[in-house]
């Protein structure tokens, strides 16, 4: 295995009866990077993470994490990884300090070392004034901070975070990501799943999953670069009619309305502006078309190719 | 096996228990409630059965006989009747359990030595039936008492000559209470972690199955001993139940039952999908334990097949142990087959639970 890789998976597949939750996924996660998993709910993110940290046996495929072969060497891996579950999984009826004490002991840290580490984490994660508070009585953002503190208590080499910010306000999300970059700077490899585009943009590299299939992977710049020239902005005073006309046109993957502007994603980038202008003129509509900067949302829509995905984006807008 | 991790799990369990008011209440509430309920309410000696008498003879002799019947304390006259038909109706309506018919020719029948009195009984309850059957021994004429021949067989009753039901029930209650609470506590313990999502966290750590299982069992074993002490103290204080054997033996026997039940609970917990299911399965164990162990009904009276089933239940063996130690003053070594059975049960259950528990989500 390449020493620069923390995770390498080939042909990773998980079937639950008739459902294929993860379908032949290949992954290479470089060390000391923040690697994102982007995908809608039910795209197989959680199942993939569970297989990568040895909690689930893959139906097919090879996994090598930190040089250990899974699922055979899962037990040895557990000391070297941290895992933050999607749902808050610390004990709600224990206090902040009790939870951390438990996790430190379970990781076999000697008592003195555990005490120093817990004091340190309580400072770093701003729990100094609430170390005696029951975990269950804290807010979403606080719980998430505590869960992260718990996951890194034994300073793992590799950290798995399953949608860590799904129940958290924007400010806590920002703070949380600061913490992640601090950890990555310290040499920790982080694999984080999300369905927020802005979070995906922060990752060093990312993989896009759709219905269990890996549809794209690379750095955010590579991914957006690959669709350069395919995203257009259409300014029209009748945006809804323009949208209808454009959706009929061949080569248009999606057209989402943002205010009075339409954001159009096309399949190719050669001479699209002229072609679409003609479509609008033929439909008796007026519109001004310019090329716009592609973002990860466009990458995502393009990769999943779904008219369906386009529809959800439009609703969100 | 790491003692640091084992200790961490035990400490966590104790801390969680301390904050769980219902569990705390159950630890003390169940023993006290059961002891008082069973100790005072259950009495196998029947008294004051509702009775009506149809005395068609109405002679001095018949009235004296009715008085004799009432003096036994078994019957209590609540209604009057004049014909056997009326008695039958009252029986059917449930107004009385026993009807006494004294025919008009009572005196002549008595002299002739024929049947002179008929007692009608609602035999649907067999204990009522057998209590009333005893009444058939009542002499028709109290004067005959003196002439009654001395019985040729004498029965000498040991260990509970006063025939107090509490003496038999209280030691058994230790077993019932431990079975009820211990199985339930551990049956819900793993499932609860699964329901609350803690399990995914736990299995992603280096904690081993045996550390988790043993760490969950031991704190409850301590609770079980507290309950045992409570029942022993209340039993001695309220019902003067003696401990004729060694107190240490009582506790050893209790520990054996506690461990058997806790490990059974753990096994249930690895199988159940929800806390509710775990409770249902607990009752599936609890009911046969109460009915078949010999706590309610003597073991000797059960059909062979049922006896085999009962031999599998830990409570059956514990009852033999505890009654032997507390009431007959036997040493625990003398009762070694029961000790062996309980140890075997615990070993099998614990191994099955550890084997069944997978540190995986699929």
Describe it.
- The complex is a heterodimer of chains A (317) and B (362).
- With 317 residues, chain A is α/β, with parallel strands linked by helices.
- Chain A has 2 domains: 30-57 and 68-224, 3-Layer(aba) Sandwich (Rossmann fold); 227-316, 2-Layer Sandwich (Alpha-Beta Plaits), CATH 3.30.70.
- Chain A contains 12 helices and 14 strands.
- Chain A has helices at residues 45-52, 74-77, 96-106, 111-124, 140-151, 170-185, 197-202, 220-225, 239-248, 272-282, 296-304, 307-316, and strands spanning 5-16, 19-30, 34-38, 60-65, 68-70, 81-84, 158-162, 189-194, 205-210, 213-218, 231-235, 252-258, 261-266, 288-291.
- Chain A is elongated, with a radius of gyration of 23 Å.
- The two termini of chain A are 44 Å apart.
- Chain B has 2 domains: 3-42 and 163-356, no CATH class; 49-141, abc type-2 transporter like domain (abc type-2 transporter like fold).
- Chain B is built from 14 helices and 4 strands.
- Helix content of chain B is 64%, strand content 6%.
- Chain B has a 4-stranded mixed beta sheet with strand order 2-1-3-4, sandwiched between helices.
- The interface between A and B is medium-sized, with 31 and 28 residues.
């Amino acid at each position: 295995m390449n020493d620069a890789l923390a995770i390498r998976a080939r042909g990773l597949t998980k079937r639950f009866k008739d459902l294929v939750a993860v379908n032949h996924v290949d992954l290479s996660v470089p060390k000391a990077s923040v690697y994102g998993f982007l995908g809608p709910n039910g795209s197989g993110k959680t199942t993939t993470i569970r297989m990568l940290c040895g909690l689930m046996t893959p139906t097919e495929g090879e996994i090598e994490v930190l040089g250990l072969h899974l699922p055979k060497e899962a037990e040895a891996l557990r000391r070297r990884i941290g895992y933050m579950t999607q749902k808050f999984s610390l004990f709600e009826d224990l206090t902040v300090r009790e939870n951390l004490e438990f996790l430190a002991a379970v990781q076999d840290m000697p008592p003195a070392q555990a005490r120093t580490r817990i004091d340190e984490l309580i400072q770093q994660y701003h729990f100094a004034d609430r170390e005696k508070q029951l975990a269950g009585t804290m807010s979403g953002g606080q719980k998430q901070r505590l869960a992260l503190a718990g996951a890194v208590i034994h300073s793992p080499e590799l950290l798995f975070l399953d949608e860590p910010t799904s129940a958290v306000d924007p400010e806590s999300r920002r703070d949380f990501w600061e913490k992640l970059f601090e950890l990555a700077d310290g040499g920790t490899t982080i694999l984080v799943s999300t369905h927020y585009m802005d979070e995906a943009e922060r990752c060093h590299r990312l993989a896009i999953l759709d219905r269990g299939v890996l549809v794209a992977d690379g750095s955010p710049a590579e991914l957006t670069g690959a669709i350069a020239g395919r995203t257009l902005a259409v300014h029209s005073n009748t945006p809804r009619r323009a949208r209808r006309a454009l959706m009929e046109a061949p080569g248009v993957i999606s057209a989402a309305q943002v205010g009075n502007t339409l954001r159009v994603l096309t399949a190719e980038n050669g001479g699209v502006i002229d072609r679409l202008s003609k479509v609008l003129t033929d439909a008796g509509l007026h519109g001004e078309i310019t090329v716009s900067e592609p973002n990860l949302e466009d990458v995502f829509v393009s990769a999943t190719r779904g008219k369906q995905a386009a529809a959800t984006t439009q609703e969100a807008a | 096996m790491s003692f640091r991790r084992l200790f961490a799990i035990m400490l966590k369990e104790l801390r969680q228990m301390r904050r769980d008011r219902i569990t705390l209440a159950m630890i003390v509430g169940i023993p006290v409630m059961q002891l008082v309920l069973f100790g005072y309410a259950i009495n196998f000696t029947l008294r004051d059965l509702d009775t009506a008498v149809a005395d068609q003879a109405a002679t001095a002799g018949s009235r004296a006989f009715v008085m004799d019947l009432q003096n036994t304390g078994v019957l209590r006259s609540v209604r009057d009747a004049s014909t056997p038909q009326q008695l039958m109706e009252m029986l059917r309506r449930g107004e009385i359990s026993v009807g006494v018919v004294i025919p008009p020719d009572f005196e002549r029948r008595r002299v002739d030595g024929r049947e002179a009195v008929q007692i009608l009984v609602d035999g649907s309850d067999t204990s009522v039936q057998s209590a009333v059957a005893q009444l058939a021994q009542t002499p028709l004429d109290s004067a005959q008492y003196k002439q009654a021949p001395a019985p040729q067989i004498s029965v000498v009753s040991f260990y509970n000559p006063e025939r107090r039901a509490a003496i038999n029930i209280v030691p058994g209650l230790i077993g019932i209470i431990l079975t009820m609470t211990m199985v339930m506590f551990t049956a819900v313990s793993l499932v609860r972690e699964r329901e609350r999502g803690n399990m995914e966290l736990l299995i992603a750590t280096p904690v081993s199955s045996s550390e988790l299982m043993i760490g969950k069992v031991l704190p409850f074993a301590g609770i079980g001993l507290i309950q045992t002490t409570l029942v022993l103290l209340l039993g001695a204080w309220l019902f003067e139940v003696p401990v004729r054997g060694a107190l240490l033996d009582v506790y050893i026997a209790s520990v054996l039952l506690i461990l058997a039940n806790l490990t059974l609970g753990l096994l249930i917990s690895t199988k159940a999908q929800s806390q509710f299911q775990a409770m249902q399965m607990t009752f599936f164990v609890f009911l046969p334990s109460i009915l078949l162990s010999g706590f309610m009904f003597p073991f000797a009276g059960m059909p062979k097949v049922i006896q085999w089933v009962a031999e599998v239940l830990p409570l059956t063996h514990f009852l033999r142990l505890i009654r032997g130690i507390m009431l007959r003053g036997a040493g625990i070594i003398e009762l070694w087959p029961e000790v062996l059975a309980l140890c075997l049960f615990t070993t099998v259950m614990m191994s099955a639970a550890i084997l069944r528990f997978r540190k995986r989500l699929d």
